[in-house]
Design goal:
The chain is mostly helical. It contains 2 helices and no strands.
Length: 89
């Protein structure tokens, strides 16, 4: 079970790093979209938007809600596992 706790800690740390990198990338991409938007107004942009907008909404939803919830869930589970392994006191 100690190995399980170590793996959960590792995964949680990696997930937090992933979330930080994803947030940075999304912020950069959104900034670039704002920059290019007035300049890029053709049919290719409309096609791009049809593909990008649903994905962008999903990614932003993950970052704004789910990312935090997943990490919190893992912290709760690790706390419970530590209590099981080492006691609550």
């Amino acid at each position: 079970m100690d190995d399980q706790l170590q793996q959960m800690e590792w995964f949680t740390n990696e997930l937090m790093r992933f979330n930080e990198r994803l947030a940075t990338s999304m912020n950069d991409l959104e900034t670039q979209h704002e920059y290019v938007s007035p300049l890029w107004q053709d049919t290719m942009r409309l096609s791009y938007n049809r593909e990008w907008e649903p994905l962008g909404q999903i990614m932003r939803g993950y970052l704004d809600r789910e990312a935090r919830d997943y990490v919190e869930f893992l912290h709760i589970k690790m706390h419970a596992l530590r209590g099981y392994l080492y006691g609550n006191g």
